[in-house]
Write a structure and sequence with these properties.
Layout (H helix, E strand, L loop, with lengths): L6 H5 L7 E3 L7 H6 L4 E4 L8 H9 L3 E7 L2 E3 L21 E5 L2 E7 L4 H16 L5 E5 L3 H8 L4 H19 L4 E5 L8 H4 L4 E5 L3 E2 L2 E2 L2 H16 L3 E6 L4 H13 L3 E5 L7 E2 L3
Length: 276
Amino acid sequence: MMPEEDDQQLIKMYTPAFLIDIRSTDINYSMLSKAPFTYIVIDPDLISLTVDELSDLRAEGKIILAYMSIGEAEMGRTYWNDGDEEWMPGVKPRFLERVNPHARDRYRVRFWMPEWQTLLKKYYLANVIRRGFSGVFLAGMDAYEYFEQRERPSAGADMISLVATLRGTSQTLNGDFLQFSNNAVDLYGSERYSGLIDGMVAENIWFEDDIRRTEAQTNFTVQFLRQARADGKTVLAADFPLNQAKVCEFYVKCTTEVFRCAVFDSRLNGAGRSCQ
């Protein structure tokens, strides 16, 4: 079960209410134990927390979520070049597509293909579930939009099926294991999908860096976050403005929705911004 927090106190929070740090390599037990956050997202391949340390953090009420991209393959992960031949993006293996133009070490994957799902589940079991994390932060989910527009009309349903597969894998070993989705909020319109996740992490809701989102764009996202919160899901909302007035505006609007809110550096390196 997830620790409960007083919603009225959340409304008053104008500093980050959770932590995402998927860049730092020096994170340790002491740092996380002292951190004033319940929800913390870290990269399991960059830190060396032991099973016992993660167990202790859970006992302290911390919810430590492991970052894992399911819509992109990332160079340097243990699954990279798995098999007898060197991977050649766009050529082999057949699930490996083009590089992400915004991150040169990440490649889109045809996530519905069994070969990718086999590698992903192997990584998931070894690096996330058996290490003792509280749950998983499923990144790269919006990859379905790319493939839906190009070659796979059923990509949205395929992504939901992958999330269901991962849910089944984790629940077999740990019935309390949590799944948090990252973006792809419109999938929450699926009744099947809403039962597969325990929380949602949404980004760029009111601002994309310092560029204000249109009212239609914000309303589209917020409608799904409101429904998730009404359903008892945890909603973590993050934007990345630099302008101080926009940082404050984000916190006012976000806490009014009674989400858990944070402004971060867009590199997700743990650097948060407060309204001052």
